[in-house]
Automatic annotation (TrEMBL):
Residues 1-96 form the HIG1 domain. The chain crosses the membrane at residues 33-52, 64-84. This is Respiratory supercomplex factor 1, mitochondrial. One of its GO terms (cellular component) is mitochondrial membrane. Gene3D superfamilies: 6.10.140.1320. GO terms for biological process: mitochondrial respirasome assembly. It holds the Pfam family HIG_1_N. It comes from the Eukaryota. Its main location: mitochondrion.
Length: 167
C-alpha cells in the first residue's frame, strides 16, 4: 500500500530550522548575483511601464528588451551559482558525485522508509484505539453487571413488599 505523495518531503532533521528571512539572507550570500538580477529585472520593467504610460513606445520597447536580457542573466546566475556551490561542496569532500540512477534509488529508499514509518505510526494509532475501545467495553460491562445486581435486589425487594402487602 503506498501513501499519498504529500508525505514526500525532506527529513526535518536534515536542515536546521531557519526563519524565512534567514533563509533568504543565506541564499543571497551564497549567490549574490541572483538578487542583483532580480532587482535589475524589476527596475527595467518599472522603467518600461513608465515609458509606455508616458507614450514613448520605442523607448519602452527597448526597456522591455533589457528586461528579457536581465531575466536571462538572472537565470544564468542561478545556474552558475548552483553549479559553483555543488562543485565547492564536492571539492571540500562534503559530497561525492552520484549518477542520476543512484540519486533516484536513494530517493526511492527514503520514500519507502518514510512510508514504512508512517504505516507503523498508523498501526500504533489503531492499536491504541483498539485498547481504548476494549477498556471502554470492560468499563461498560462492569457497569452493566452492577446495574443487573441492583435490578435483582430491587426485584427481591419488590417481591418482599408484595408478600407483605398480601398478608
Amino acid at each position: 500500500m503506498s501513501m499519498p505523495s504529500s508525505y514526500d518531503h525532506l527529513d526535518p532533521n536534515e536542515k536546521r530550522r531557519l526563519k524565512y528571512t534567514e533563509q533568504v539572507a543565506q541564499k543571497c550570500r551564497e549567490n549574490p548575483f541572483v538578487p542583483i538580477g532580480i532587482l535589475t529585472t524589476i527596475c527595467t520593467v518599472t522603467i518600461a511601464i513608465f515609458k509606455m504610460k508616458s507614450g514613448n513606445k520605442a523607448t519602452a520597447n527597448k526597456w522591455f528588451t533589457a528586461r528579457v536580457v536581465s531575466q536571462g542573466a538572472t537565470l544564468l546566475a542561478v545556474i552558475l551559482g548552483g553549479s559553483y556551490e555543488g562543485r565547492k561542496a564536492y571539492l571540500q569532500g562534503k559530497e561525492e558525485p552520484k549518477s542520476i540512477t543512484e540519486i533516484q534509488q536513494e530517493k526511492l529508499q527514503q520514500k519507502a522508509q518514510e512510508r514504512q514509518n508512517l504505516w507503523i505510526e498508523e498501526l500504533e494509532r489503531r492499536d491504541e484505539n483498539i485498547k481504548k475501545r476494549k477498556q471502554f467495553a470492560e468499563l461498560k460491562k462492569k457497569e452493566m453487571e452492577r446495574m443487573k445486581e441492583e435490578s435483582e435486589k430491587l426485584e427481591e425487594e419488590l417481591k418482599e413488599l408484595e408478600k407483605k402487602s398480601k398478608c
